[in-house]
Amino acid sequence: MPLLEIKNLQIEFGAGVRAVRAVDGVSLSLEAGKTLCLVGESGSGKSITALSIAKLVPSPPARYVGGEILLEGLDVLKMSSSELRDVRGGLVSYVFQEPGASLNPVFRVGAQIKESLQYHRPEAANDTEVIRLLKLVGISAPESRMRNYPHEMSGGMQQRVMIAMALASQPKLLVADEPTTALDVTIQAQIIELLSDLRLKLGMAVLFITHNLGILGDLADNVAVMYAGQIVERGTMREVLQRPIHPYTRSLIQSVPALDIEVERLTAIPGTVPLSGAFPSGCRFHPRCPIAQPACSSRMPDLADVPNGRAVRCPFWDSSGNARTTSRKA
Amino acid sequence: MNLLAIENLKVHFPVRQPFIGRAKEFVHAVDDVNFTIAAGETVGLVGESGCGKTTLGRAAIKLIEPTSGRIVFDGEEIGALSGAELRARRRRFQMVFQDPYGSLDPRLTVADIIGEALEIHGLASGATERRRRVEVLLKQVGLDSSHASRLPHQFSGGQRQRIGIARALAVEPRLIVCDEPVSALDVSVQAQIINLLQDLQREHGIAYLFVAHDLAVVKHISRRILVMYLGRIVESGEAKSLCRSPKHPYTQALLSAVPVVDPDSKRQRILLAGDVPSPIHPPGGCPFHPRCPIAEARCKTEVPALRELEPGHLAACHLATAETGGQ
């Protein structure tokens, strides 16, 4: 049984005719101890999907209109509020994008970690455990650092504190929602290294959310690419990065400049990410798609299984080799 | 001839201003920086947050008053100018800001945002002429002339950045300082803006000082790159050779931190320990030595000077030689 299984999740905002379906039929599964990366641009619904795992998207305004979210076989969407309290920050912990905004500025970081311990492991709510957690996330001199206020720390250090706080409950699933986006590239590399280290050391599953395909490195086992509230491509990390088959994934990879490849001009994806509520008819990517056919604007393609355990939401998917080399030369 | 020449530029900010008397401590945001930009050229400026790259970009066009040093624009020293004299020169150097949400007045229409620049510099006589020029500018940056009457909140981040570029273009500048113009944008839109900047450069011969922390983006757009650390330029050179064989250990670490899509690319990662030190009390000797993987005893005491190791390729490191570098 997978640790997390999301089946056909549908989340709407607003009511009646103006209802906006931000997440539309997302299905994912994550085994214990594995890493899944959810990739997509702003507005693709990736954060809403991630937050819904602990039912953290407040309802109202959101409405969970369909689907199931099974955590160790139990449906989160049917849980009572006391059951949810055990899941939140317990079985599932979150690390968010802006550590500066997630930490309380008026409490010392040690006290904030201890608060998390008090909720989930009251027997371990002491300085020794706080110091152990800070050490675990690579903070030097934790005895003095635990007495710092968040503003006395740099962004990278704050993010380490956030991770320590998330680990306090010994979660089985760590959801990291763009944990490195607000950080410098050098610090980003440190945090990714830390996460991949911790996952091996603690054997927890990680759901990693990002808009940058490049940062995954060897962190992720599997990748799911989201566009406009739907999953458009799914597969192992290696397969998806080396042989992306959905035109959106391919364009996404090509639009990022690389150090080792010289190009005169970047391949940009024309237009903008559609807003939820204003999704185009048919395939939602068709107005920006380089290989769109007339049929694409009328019929929404299904997420179809293709060889090597992959799935793609495009009937015209291209199986030919590496995205960069093949289409860049063209 | 150089369009912009920066000589020994320093920007120091006072900290802990005492009640009476003079400030005792200073943030050395920019410390003794020299560089030039030729007409129509793109120079990239990279470094981590807090290294002073934004301050340098702003001080180079006098948006921040430098503490000392010379700024020569088009053969004329502008460092000492102020008031109306400076304002008249500003037409020649413009800026595009990082945050497209914070840099446009939310209560002005697009036509007013762009038109204001035309008005200040007296470039459009009458409302019809102004409207016509705004429409031309919108078209140049890939927007529709019907967008002129809209307000900033009706646009996406990428579109707002286009408006910011149109506003800078309005006064026909010869230099635009782009301060992290794509950092706040989605990757698919980033490429559009980079392509737009390059197209505009080809058409109008505009020079850019392109400030960013992503070396891959900077390398793509720049002819030359300056690498900044704690207020100083630690390496500079032609973009390709700097990325192919970086001399300074800091540049090597920055390059190795650039994300690579291909999971099989076996690149050596140099993880930098710790953060950028405080610029109020920069470390003695080489400012990079506490984080440097190859630091020696003398790095703690002697400040390394920028040395030319290969033609046009300079680095400030005691241990760098023409052979060092490469990944």
Written account of the structure:
The complex is a heterodimer of chains A (330) and B (327). Chain A is of the alpha/beta class and 330 residues long. Chain A has 2 domains: 32-56 and 78-225, 3-Layer(aba) Sandwich (Rossmann fold), CATH 3.40.50.300; 247-329, no CATH class. Chain A has helices at 46-52, 81-87, 99-102, 109-120, 127-136, 142-145, 155-167, 185-202, 237-242, 247-254, 323-329; strands spanning 4-13, 20-30, 35-39, 62-71, 74-75, 92-95, 173-177, 205-210, 222-227, 230-236, 304-306, 310-312. Mean pLDDT of chain A is 85; it is low at 322-330. By secondary structure, chain B is of the alpha/beta class. Chain B has 2 domains: 2-92 and 173-315, 3-Layer(aba) Sandwich (Rossmann fold); 106-167, no CATH class. Chain B is built from 9 helices and 12 strands. Chain B has helices spanning 53-60, 83-90, 110-120, 127-140, 157-169, 187-204, 215-221, 239-244, 249-257; strands at residues 2-15, 25-38, 42-46, 68-73, 76-77, 93-96, 175-179, 207-212, 224-229, 232-238, 307-310, 313-315. In chain B, the strands form 2 sheets. In chain B, strands 6-7-8-3-9-10-12-11 form an 8-stranded mixed beta sheet, with helices on both faces. The radius of gyration of chain B is 21 Å and the shape is globular. The two termini of chain B are 35 Å apart. Chain A binds chain B through residues 41-42, 154-157, 184-190, 193, 211-218, 237-238, 241-242, 251-253, 255-260, 262-263, 265-270, 272-273, 288, 324, and chain B through 48-49, 156-159, 186-192, 194-195, 198, 213-217, 219-220, 240, 243, 253-265, 269, 271-272, 275-276.
